[in-house]
Every structure is written in C-alpha cells, then in structure tokens.
C-alpha cells in the first residue's frame, strides 16, 4: 500500500501533467480575428476586475466607459494593484498570468505585461498559451445570431484544430422576436405563432448549423426563473425543436442556469448577478427525455447539492464545473468534495469560462491546485479504509475528471 507521501506525489504529478479539455469558454481562434480576445489590456478590463475596481476608485461608470481600452486598463491597474493588494480571485489571476510569462508585476508593472502578451494572437501564440495552461483543447461559445461571427462560418474560415464549436441558443430561447426576424430574413419560413410548419423550419435551421460548425453540444444560458415544462415559446422550442434535433444528432444540451442579468446596468457586462434556481426543470427534462443528454451547471452555491443528487438519479445528467462567481478556491473545493462524495469521479471537475485567451493559464492553475488537495484527501481516506490504491487508479480518475468524462458523455 502506498505511503501518504507516495500517494500525494502520485496525485500531484497526475494533476500537474493531465491534458485538459476546457469544455466551456468564450474564446475564439486567431482566424476569427474580430472576435478573438487576448493581450494585457483585455486581461485588465475583464468584467470581474471592472466591478472590483469600481469599489475602490472614485470614477463614475459613465466616465469609465468613455475611456479608451488602454486607459481603462491603466485605471483598473491603479485601483487594484497600486492602491490595494490583488487578493481577489481575478486580481490574483493577473499576477499568475504575469508569472507564467516571466513578468514581475511589482517591478515591471502593467507595461511589462503589455510587452509580453500579444493583443493580436497568432496560432503560434494561442498554442503557446494553451500549452502553458496544460489545455489540450477548448470548446467555444458560438452564436449563430451574431452577425460578425456568422460571416466567419459562412465563409468557411479555417480554425485552429484545438478550438471546438458549441452552438449557443440564447437568442432563440430568450428573444424569439429577434430570432424570428433573423430566421425569416435568411430563408427560414417562420411566423410568430410557431405552428408545426414553423417548428419544422426551426429544426431545419438547427440542423443546417450543426452541419456548418459541427458542434460538440448545444448550449443555453438560462435565468433563475427557468421552468420546464411550460406552455411558452421557450418551452415549445425546447420540446418540439431543440430536443428532437439533439436526439437525432446525438448532441447533449448544456444548461447553465441561474444568471440574473443587469442588476446594475451601469456596469454593463460586469452588472450581472446570480440567484437560486429550481432543480425541477432538470428533473423533468431528464425524466421525460431519457434519450437526451444534459450537461448542467448552476450559478448559485445553494443549487449544487440538489444538482449532485439529481445526477445520482439520472445517468443522462452530467454536472460540470464551477461557473462564474463559484470559480474561487473555497467554493470549487467545497463543491468538488461534495460531488465526489455523492457521485464519485463521474462529473466534469471544471471549465474556465475564459473570455480572454490568457485567462486559461490562471484558471487552470487554480483548478489543478484545488483538485490536488481534494483528491489527495479523498484517496488517503480510501486507503485508510483498506483500499490498496494504485498509481493507475489515480491517473485514470484524474484523466476522467479533467477530460475523458466530458468526451465519453458527448460521444456516447
């Protein structure tokens, strides 16, 4: 039986070297140049840091948004790295990104970071960043209703093979009037009432986009009020269009639930918040549609226990990651421990939700640190109970949690 020192070393080495599948991001490949986001100014103007800097500085939100991006970055730097100590998850992340690029922020400051990070990424730079993070591939968030993005897909723009697609359905499900106008203008014969003919056209639209971008899943970010079943446009689109196409194409539907939009609209992208949501829609979906697969995450801490219990009852539900405000060491540790205790290593331990390319570096360094501590403790308990753990057990579990569980789920 391995000693505690040997066991800790096995876990540390397995987690440090595992190649990650980052199964939910907002990243784009360099070839999608108008959408690709990287560089020091974008790292500093991350919406987390905007909200935090507003707590420190005296600048009004109107004056902040009137600044150029470099000036915004300068101001945020002053508030969070000069006036205060960067202890928050997002501010510490900037320091970790700098460290990965060999920049000492105490002496080189923001200028040093600007000199090392590329604001216009090439494939070589993107690959370098992913390798620094130990990320094998990422899954994007792809919106067929975004005019700029749509052009890249329609032109057949080649992309870095490490960037997989996911078809985002937020406009379709949250703003049907806008979606209906777009569909009507692009050759799909749909009216506002969504009769059988209209629904068939929505299904045709979805299948056309599956063929175009080859997504690994469909995705929908839902408010805390999300309900199912319900006799609404959203409910009918789910039951009569989206879920049938998911079954036909063998694609999961990823549900990200609990966003409360624009509680402070003056902060724009930094103004969204969270609220507790109901687990009843997930139970109903999993029970009514056993042939469908559902990747599920909730934004509120209070929903995590119910989600793990629901996953115990339904094999077609896969919990994934600790999203947005949950992506802190404290909460990732708590939630990962709880999931291991209820469903074993049968979930996706984390995703980055990265909006800036370099974010994958600190987000995955943080995730590895937490996973190492959580798994070491669990394995030690297992050995104390008399289970003779092997190095192969550890390697297998770590690979499943960081990558293989996701691929097994989407491809089965």
From TrEMBL:
This is Glucuronate isomerase. It comes from Alicyclobacillus sacchari.
């Amino acid at each position: 039986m391995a000693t505690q020192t040997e066991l800790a070393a096995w876990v540390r080495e397995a987690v440090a070297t595992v190649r990650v599948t980052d199964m939910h991001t907002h990243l784009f490949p360099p070839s999608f140049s108008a959408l690709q986001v990287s560089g020091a100014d974008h790292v500093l103007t991350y919406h987390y840091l905007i909200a935090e800097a507003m707590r420190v500085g005296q600048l009004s939100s109107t004056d902040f948004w009137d600044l150029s991006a470099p000036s915004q970055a300068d101001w945020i730097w002053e508030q969070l790295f000069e006036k205060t100590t960067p202890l928050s998850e997002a501010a510490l992340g900037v320091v970790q990104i700098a460290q990965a690029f060999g920049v000492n922020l105490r002496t080189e400051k923001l200028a040093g970071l600007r000199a090392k990070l590329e604001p216009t990424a090439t494939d070589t730079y993107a690959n370098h960043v992913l390798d620094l993070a130990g990320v094998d591939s990422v899954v994007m968030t792809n919106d067929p209703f975004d005019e700029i993005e749509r052009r890249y897909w329609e032109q057949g723009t080649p992309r870095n093979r490490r960037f997989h697609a996911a078809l985002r359905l937020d406009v379709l499900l949250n703003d049907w009037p806008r979606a209906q106008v777009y569909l009507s203008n692009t050759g799909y014969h749909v009216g506002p009432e969504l009769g059988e003919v209209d629904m068939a056209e929505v299904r045709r639209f979805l299948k056309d986009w599956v063929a175009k971008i080859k997504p690994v899943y469909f995705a929908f970010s839902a408010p805390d009020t999300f309900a199912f079943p319900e006799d609404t446009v959203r409910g009918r689109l789910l039951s009569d269009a989206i879920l049938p196409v998911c079954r036909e194409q063998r694609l999961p539907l990823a549900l990200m639930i609990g966003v409360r939009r624009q509680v402070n609209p003056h902060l724009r992208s930094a103004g969204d918040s969270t609220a507790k949501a109901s687990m009843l829609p997930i139970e109903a979906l999993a029970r009514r549609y056993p042939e469908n697969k559902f990747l599920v995450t909730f934004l509120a801490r209070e929903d995590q226990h119910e989600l793990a219990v629901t996953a115990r009852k339904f094999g077609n539900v896969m919990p994934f990651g600790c999203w947005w405000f949950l992506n802190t060491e404290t909460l990732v540790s708590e939630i990962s421990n709880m999931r291991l205790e209820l469903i074993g290593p049968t979930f996706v331990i984390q995703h980055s939700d990265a909006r800036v390319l370099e974010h994958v570096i600190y987000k995955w360094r943080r995730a590895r640190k937490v996973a190492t501590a959580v798994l070491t403790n669990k394995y030690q308990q297992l050995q104390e109970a008399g289970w003779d753990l092997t190095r192969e057990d550890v390697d297998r579990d770590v690979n499943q949690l960081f990558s293989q569980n996701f691929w097994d789920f989407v491809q089965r």
